[in-house]
Amino acid sequence: MKTFSLVSISLLLSVAPTSFAAPTAKASTSLKEIRRRAIENNETPEKHIVVLKQNEKRSWNDIFHEMGYNKTDLDGLKDTAGFRTSESFGRTFTMKLHSREIESMSSLSHIEFIQKDHTRSGAGVRIDDPRFDAIPAPTFSGRFPIVKRQQGQQGRLNIQTQNNAPYNLGRISSMHSINKNGRDYNSLNYNYAFDAPNGKGVDIYVLDSGVNIDHVEFQGRAKNLFTAFNGDFRDLHGHGTNVAGIVGSRAYGVAKRANIYALRVLDAENRGSDSDFINALQAVVNNHNKRKNDRDFIGSIINFSIGGQGDNALLLRAFQGVFAAGIHVSNSGMNDNVDACTSHPQKYSLTTPMITTGNSDINDVKAAKSNFGKCITLHAPGEFIISTGKENTQARSVFSGTSQASPAVVGVMADLMLRFRELRTDPQAMKAFLLKRSGGNVQGATGGGSILNNVIDFNNNP
Q1: Of 171, 210, 282, 284, which shows the fewest CB atoms inside 10 Å?
Q2: Are 77 and 95 within 8 A, CB to CB?
Q3: CATH label of the domain that carries residue 100
Q4: pLDDT at residue 143, as a whole number
């Protein structure tokens, strides 16, 4: 397994203008008093993540006592300032801070840096179009032959075909453009060719708005793992359930036998915060480390169809920790028709094994709103994608966006893990393999112009 060392904090801060490095002097005025004055002056606080230095081992009570707070004060800050502590990828706390608090806190010798807790959003849009309402649901059985591959049999295929698939599945299993023959986005009669193991034993982590894990198309393979919303795992938006269905549902999914773990980090408006993303990534690493010695375990992949403005040094550190653990990541390129390098974590694809995915349509044309540039790794179909819905156990939904392109990459990675052992815990090798085997040419794309391919049947006509 390849490892990825953390870059120096000085380098991280050089690309994170909202971070505040910490000198070694001690604050002369208590932070409690500084906060009181800021409140009296009606200053507006913003939520920040405060990162302690690695050698800081004192209790939280002792640390905040130095700042002028007692335990009762801390209990009050939980309600008034959103105060929370965390051990995810370092010892941190989040809290709404005023500018003078940040300036004074940065002078404490045990503070490594302070980072704004940015808000980011999901990168897919629900499509309400009556053309999709009348089409019958697919009846793909999801039954597979038993395939046991011995050592030295890597790459051997047991190809199965789903002939009532949505177009996006047909496109990724062919080196050729879609031959529509009178069909369109709302048709469910495309051919999807895949290898029979199809992700079995692979754990896929969907960090999103939640997943309707009881949907019949998940066949009991979906579980809740983490929520940032006081024990509420429900998908109140629908984005996450649609994404998870593309990853691994029976009728609409790429990897139809993979395990799906739901991590709810987005609210009903499809928005979430960096601190919650970081805690969820730590939950993924923890579960991966528990699972990796199980006999049926193959590997782990994260789908992160989320992005937004503003860098975050701790978020980058978290993703570096994920890669160091041998976990793969695909994320969405976002939908603003701008340089993808202006969004995060999309920009991390330049310096890490992260795969950032652009959105192509049924004609292999870059979607109008899909971001572009050197931070896009490749493209996958993401326009008008039919998948699972949140409303009930048989609901269907249609979304468009790079959010719907990214999970196709995740599904293909799950399939490749079973065929090529050397890719299982090597995110950099997986990224290089996908790029080498992708084909086609996305019209209008500047950056990542090839189209995802599952390397199954180069002659398949979808």
Answers
A1: 282
A2: yes
A3: 3.30.70
A4: 57
For the entire predicted model, the pTM comes to 0.89
What pLDDT, on a 0 to 100 scale, did the predictor assign at position 199? Answer: 96
Alpha-carbon span 113 to 133, nearest angstrom? 51
Out of 86, 117, 148, a domain closes at 117
321 CA to centre of own chain? 14
Give how many domains the chain has, as a whole number.
2
* Nearest-5° Cα angle at 233, 206 to 386: 50
pLDDT, position 439: 84
Catalytic residue list: 208, 239, 403
The answer on 160 and 101 residing in a single domain is no
- C-alpha 266/C-alpha 254 separation (Å) is 23
Please name the residues in contact with 107: beta carbons below 8 A apart, sequence gap of 6 or more: 22, 23, 25, 26, 27
pLDDT at position 258 over 60: yes
DSSP 138: P
Map tokens 């991966």 to a residue: 288
Residues 82 and 133 in one domain: no
User: For the chain, what is the mean pLDDT?
Assistant: 89
Are residues 89 and 129 both part of a single domain? no
Do 129 and 110 belong together in one domain?
no
Confidence of residue 130 (pLDDT cuts 50, 70, 90): confident
**Residues spanned by the domain of 306:** 125-451
For residue 22, pLDDT over 50 is answered with no
Q: Is the per-residue pLDDT at 133 higher than 80?
A: no
CA dihedral 329, 334, 340, 345 (to 10 degrees): -40
